[in-house]
Amino acid sequence: MIEIRKKLKTIFGYDSFRPLQEEVITKIVAKEDALVIMPTGGGKSLCYQIPALVFEGLTIVLSPLISLMKDQVEQLTQLGVDAVVLNSSLLPEEYAHNFNKVKTNQAKLLYLAPESLFKEDIQWLLKAVQLDCITVDEAHCISEWGHDFRKEYRMLGALREKFSSAVCVALTATATPRVQDDIIKNLKLVNAKKFVASFDRKNLFLQVMPKLDPFSQTAEFLNEHKNQSGIIYCFSRRQVDELHENLSRIGFSTKPYHAGLGDGERAANQDLFSNDKVDIIIATIAFGMGINKSNVRFVIHYDLPKNLESYYQEIGRSGRDGVRADCLLLFSNSDTAKINYFINQKEDAAERHSAKVHLEAMVRYAEFDDCRRKPLITYFGETYSQSNCGMCDNCITEAKESEDITVAAQKFFSAVKRTGEIFGAGYVIDVLAGSENEKILRNGHQKLSVYGVGKEYTKVQWKQIFTQLLNKKYITRDVEFGSLKLAASASDVLFNNEKVFGRAEAKVRSSAKRLMIKEDYNEELFEMLRQKRRQIAESRNIPPYVVFSDRTLIEMAKEFPNDEFQLSKISGIGEKKIKTYGAIFLSIIKRYSDRTNITSNKPPVKTKISGAKRYIEVAEAFNKNNSIAAIAQNMNVKKETIIKHLYDYVQKKNKLNPQLLLSEIELKKEIQENIFAEFRSEGVGSLSVVKEKFGEEVTYDDLHILRIMFLNNQS
Ligand code: ADP
Ligand code: MG
Ligand code: ZN
Q1: Residue 301 pairs with which residues in a beta bridge?
Q2: Residue minimizing CA distance to atom 23 of ligand 1
Q3: Is the dihedral of CA 206, 209, 211, 213 positive or negative?
Q4: Ligand 1, from 12, 15, 292, 553: best to mutate by most atoms within 8 Å of Cβ?
Q5: Which of 14, 48, 171, 172 to mutate to test the pocket of ligand 1 (most atoms within 8 A of CB)?
Q6: Which residues, judged by CB distance below 6 Å to any ligand atom, belong to the binding site of ligand 1?
Q7: Residue closest to 106 by CA, chosen among 64, 77, 134
Q8: How does DSSP classify residue 646?
């Protein structure tokens, strides 16, 4: 017990275990078989690496891809752990060298491809040494039900019997029970305990935006993620090439990745990405499996994924280091239609149906108006009971006061009913909008009483209203055809005076940046440390994240350690890394401190801030481009409280960024001017007088912000 905790700190440099790691390790060390199911980035490797260090003999690790094995061995070598790989990609002298290391008990871990396992020399070797642990990584490859079945994995069953004194541990991120059963059966695990970790990746920020102008939306998002690594997933190769061309033309560092490129070019582009020499990979779904890069900071879905499994797997490639990563999905109905079109090409009816059910779940997620983790996590069979995750767009946008949308709902229901409950949302909305499209005229629907009665809202607003009605289960949507039907509850709204509350916002959020809350660290120092990391990586021919993770650099840029002891407290710095890199990084930090006189960037401890100083903290956060809603969320207070602090700030003749203030209100310029005129003539003492004058046109929130703007202009 003490031993494994000590190894965690001294070798890996971590202070605590991630969920289930300790339980799994204890089990394996006791030589009992285990099946470990953890999401990508959950920390599966540690589960067998620590036991390998405890065992006297050898641990072998079977892994499907040479690039993954190489990566793991490099990481371990950097930690001072003796690990080697034996596979066909090695030069003969390298092979002989590694072979000899295992033979003479100098290696604790041996990485192997399953197909090498039954080669004569390897079989001889495994018998010649004491084999204590057999690890099967990416164990879903053994199942035909998994997404990347590999023939060679089937041979692994024989192994368990041959080396019965070794413990066997299988690891995967695949959640389906059928695959899990397959693994246990095929690997012949003995009384294996199954460890299933939660699939909630708390550090992924989930966001969906309507796909209006995808190129500008993407460019805007990328501008908010300068110098960061990320992946953009597209539906087709053509889209990948086009986006790559257009983004690189306006100065973004991108490379394409898809099955249409030659093997050489694909591998080269992946390497550039892994080594931080290219920021962004634009890819079809072909990209991801062979990559261990821990500092992927964002994933954009330029097109809608076909199902939640793919979506989850793709966003899962970001944020493995536990640092926040941003996942943006651009969603449009035409993408849904496009995928449906391809599904309809499938011959098999059952397959078609299942694909549509999966697509429907994906669309539901995109249209969901409450915490996005609910549909996502429950899809994987977990219950999700938290009410606000604080890490998705819906949770951090404060609910706009619910409007009474009963009349709109009634209109929508009538249109569904009158058109015979056989059309999709787009058509129903066209009828409400009084559109003269050919299909409507052909069906004679321009003669219906509901035709054109919805002109008070735009189509985008109607779409939003529809989604809410769907989410509230007043309407059902046919999986196969997308046609809408009324549920029984809709008649209560139509005939029994039941009210519906919701939103019908005129403006759709267009930018991601207002949702960002940056972690507090010194960005200038971080950038210098990052440069050094890249230099070192290049000279040693290893990926930068193998030298140090982003988390480690962020902590350095927060804590400003000034000696080896302080350095050792930073996450991810074990004894070996201090020896190898300690002096270099300490000297960068020292030089930076000397030059700038900054000695730490620790955020002030919140509870210790006196009330008097609070408004300064709030104002500074605001000026750093955090929205009022986001700050309120972060500090766990009401929006009004934040507004009050900003008011205090400008009253003391301090200045806020006027541009940011402007983006907090949605009022016509003209009304703003009129209100300012009012402030000038009547003073800013009483907002209720102004409110009376302008009535419904402005809210109190608007008035409060306008007053701040007014004072801000004067200061
Ligand atoms: P998986 O194989 O489950 O996708 P990895 O084993 O590659 O995940 O781990 C992902 C990242 O998390 C790695 O950078 C690893 O160093 C880090 N990590 C693992 N366990 C811990 C821990 N207990 N504390 C901090 N970081 C950890
Ligand atoms: Mg792994
Ligand atoms: Zn949420």
Answers
A1: 233, 329
A2: 17
A3: negative
A4: 12
A5: 14
A6: 14, 17-18, 21, 38, 40-46, 294, 320-322, 549, 571
A7: 77
A8: H
Tokens of 96: 């002989």
Contacts of 540 (CB under 8 A, 6+ apart): 547
> Could you tell me which residues come within 8 angstroms of residue 353 by beta carbon, excluding any fewer than 6 positions away?
479, 480
Rounded distance from Cα 17 to ligand 1 centre (Å): 10
Q: How far is the CA of 566 from the centre of ligand 1 (A)?
A: 22
**Which tokens sit at 7?**
């190894």
Query: Amino acid identity, residue 692?
Result: E
pTM over 0.90: no
Atom of ligand 1 nearest to the CA of 545: 14
Give residues with Cβ within 8 angstroms of 696, minimum separation 6. Answer: none
Ordered domains of the chain (ranges, CATH):
2-196 (3.40.50.300), 204-393 (3.40.50.300), 403-502 (1.10.10.10), 523-596 (1.10.150.80), 614-714 (1.10.10.1390)
114 CA distance to ligand 2 middle (Å): 16
Nearest CA to ligand 1 atom 18: 43
Q: What is the pLDDT of residue 636?
A: 72
pLDDT, mean over the chain: 90
**Which two tokens mark 8?**
């965690």
Which pLDDT belongs to residue 53?
97
pLDDT of residue 510: 44
Q: Residue 547 carries which DSSP code?
A: H
Strand 403-404 and strand 501-502: the pairing is: antiparallel
pLDDT in tens, 107-163: 999 999 998 988 999 999 999 999 999 999 999 999 877 667 888 888 888 888 889
Distance between Cα 572 and ligand 1 center (Å) = 10
Say which residue, 239 or 401, is predicted with more confidence. 239
CB 551 within 8 A of CB 571: yes
The residue that leads in pLDDT, 603 or 164, is 164
Res 491 pLDDT > 70: yes
Per-residue pLDDT at 172 exceeds 90: yes
Tell me what the mean pLDDT of segment 558-584 comes to: 96
Bridge partner list, 34: 169, 193
The pLDDT value recorded for residue 245 is 97
Phi-psi region for residue 682, left (φ > 0), alpha (ψ -120 to 50) or beta? alpha
C-beta separation of 535 from 556 below 8 A: no
* H or E stretch covering 61: strand 58-62
530 vs 441: CA distance, rounded Å = 62
